[in-house]
Design goal:
Elements lengths: L3 E4 L7 E4 L13 H21 L8 H40 L5 E5 L4 E2 L5 E8 L3 E10 L4 E10 L2 E8 L9 E9 L2 E2 L2 E14 L5 E5 L4 E3 L3 E4 L1
Antiparallel strand pairs: 1-2, 3-11, 3-14, 4-5, 5-8, 5-11, 6-7, 6-9, 9-10, 11-12, 12-13
Length: 229
């Protein structure tokens, strides 16, 4: 940030340095109390300099204009930071309210938890392929990593696809997970696993990002929701 200097009225050989004080939060916002005190000090020094300047060698108009412009710029930045901070808070509150309205709704989002119907024991999942694949294999396992089987889906086009797996032979109580292995003539094809379920609660992760907890135990990032029904 720019620094201004104003000559000491009592000693024209000295310079006062104007350095805006900022808070230590790392957000770039300026402490309003410190800012106001610094501005007041700056203006008093400027007035003192003008009052006591040598009439034969007055302060250059361009220099004075530059100093005033600098402090005005700092003030404007501080006000802009305050406005942006307020807008960010309002936006976060709005997103939180929108996420809360999803409780009781069925969503599909990023996640690799298999959604198992307790009555039919049919497990369902989905995934997105970034490109065409000549071979797509879905592997099913427990949350602890025990392999339970696989599904060979063959050739598939790019885009979203659903699949199902009969989980009636599984008698454990761990959540079931799935992974996708997609290739096209030996080359790997990027895939994104998708899980589907009823939203039971809304929370946040360690970074503060909103997450949705589904009835199948999966946690889906709010930003990763693909569809709502």
């Amino acid at each position: 940030m720019s620094t201004s200097t104003v000559s000491d009225a009592a000693n024209s050989g000295n310079k006062y340095t104007y350095t805006p004080t900022t808070s230590g939060t790392g957000t770039g916002s300026t402490n309003s109390t410190d800012m106001g005190a610094t501005q007041d000090r700056f203006l008093k020094l400027l007035v003192a300099q003008l009052t006591n300047q040598d009439p034969m060698n007055p302060m250059d108009n361009a220099q004075m204009t530059t100093q005033i412009a600098q402090i005005n710029t700092v003030t404007g930045i501080q006000q802009l930071n305050t406005t942006v901070s307020g807008l960010a808070t309002q936006l976060a509150a709005t997103i939180g309210m929108q996420a809360g309205m999803l409780v009781g709704r069925t969503v599909e989002g990023e996640g690799n938890t298999l959604a198992v119907d307790p009555k039919t024991k049919l497990g369902t999942g989905a995934f997105e392929l970034d490109g065409q694949a000549s071979s797509v294999v879905v592997s099913i396992s427990t949350a602890s990593g025990k392999s339970l089987g696989s599904i060979n889906l063959g050739t598939m086009a790019a885009g979203a696809h659903d699949f199902s797996w009969d989980s009636s032979s599984y008698s454990g109580d761990e959540a079931l997970m799935f992974s996708i292995e997609a290739t096209n003539k030996g080359a790997a094809v990027t895939s994104t696993p998708l899980t589907k379920g009823l939203v039971t609660s809304v929370g946040s992760d360690s970074q503060g990002a909103l997450t949705l907890t589904l009835n199948n135990g999966a946690k889906v990032p709010y930003s990763g929701v693909k569809s709502i029904s």
